[in-house]
Amino acid sequence: MQHIYDESFERIVRDVQIGQQQEEYYPVKLIASRGTIQCRYYPVKDSDRAVIWVGGVGGDWDTPARGLYPLLCQQLIKEGIASLRVRYRYPAELEESVLDVLAGISYLHDEGIQNFALVGHSFGGAVVIKAAVQAPDVRTVVTIATQVYGTETVADLATRCSLLLLHGAEDRVLPPHCSQRVYQLALQPKRIIFYPNADHGLDQVADEVTQVVRDWIVEQLNRSSTRVL
Q1: Nearest-angstrom CA–CA distance, 99 and 8
Q2: Do the domain assignments include residue 144?
Q3: How confident is the model at residue 124 (pLDDT cuts 50, 70, 90)?
Q4: Are residues 103 and 32 in contact, defined by beta-carbon separation less than 8 angstroms?
Q5: For the residues of 96-125, what is the DSSP string, one character each?
Q6: Distance between CA atoms of 32 and 103, rounded to whole angstroms?
Q7: Who contacts 93 (Cβ-Cβ below 8 Å, separation ≥6)?
Q8: Total tally of structural domains belonging to the chain
């Protein structure tokens, strides 16, 4: 494994175990001294682009918008973009979850990936922002109903990494002003979209969210193949 960006996580990933293919993905275990990071890898041969997807504080394989993550993992294969879903070792522990994402980036580097998009829901929004700040190969970040705590360094993404924030206007778990606050802290390039009548999971607007996230990732990662944002 390559060096992982955070010094406290250096050499923690000691081995990689890849299971038999399950539908469109391969189960991947990143064996670490502080726990095993379980992933689902949707590879694309010879691709240098990939998305890492993380859920909220509930952990496991949770996904917003009626199965957004597995759906887009499969759709993006057709665009030549690989995906890695990461299951937190310790859900709700922000710094540990950031390290999980950085470990995923390190693994994908060994698979030839050079340009990354990070997508996180709820708690995961803060996770992917903090991870992107530490990982210079991240070209874009997408947050869905993000929390504010842990996003204070979002301005450090400016110029090299774009930011898309999505939030339901009827979110009672993390009100939409959370994404608004992150948007205010961030610098360009950035975009924010609020969905009327949508709650924290954005299930009510799943089709729209799927299209927006897909188009954004394809555009941003295609752009990164010729120049850095």
Answers
A1: 9
A2: yes
A3: very high
A4: yes
A5: HHHHHHHHHHHHHHHTT--EEEEEEETHHH
A6: 9
A7: none
A8: 1
Give tens-digit pLDDT for 125-181.
999 999 999 999 999 999 999 999 999 999 999 999 999 999 999 999 999 999 999
Q: Token digits for 1?
A: 């494994």
Contacts of 89 (CB under 8 A, 6+ apart): 32, 34, 35, 36, 37, 96, 97, 100
Residue type, 153: T
Question: Quick one: the chain helix, strand, coil %, rounded to 5?
Answer: 35, 25, 40
Residue 28 lies in a domain: no
Report the CATH number that the domain containing residue 178 is assigned in CATH.
3.40.50.1820
Q: Flag whether 11 is in a domain.
A: no
**CB contact at 8 A, 160 and 182:** no
Domain range enclosing 77? 41-224
Percentage of the chain exceeding pLDDT 90:
88
Would 34 be classed as within a structural domain? no
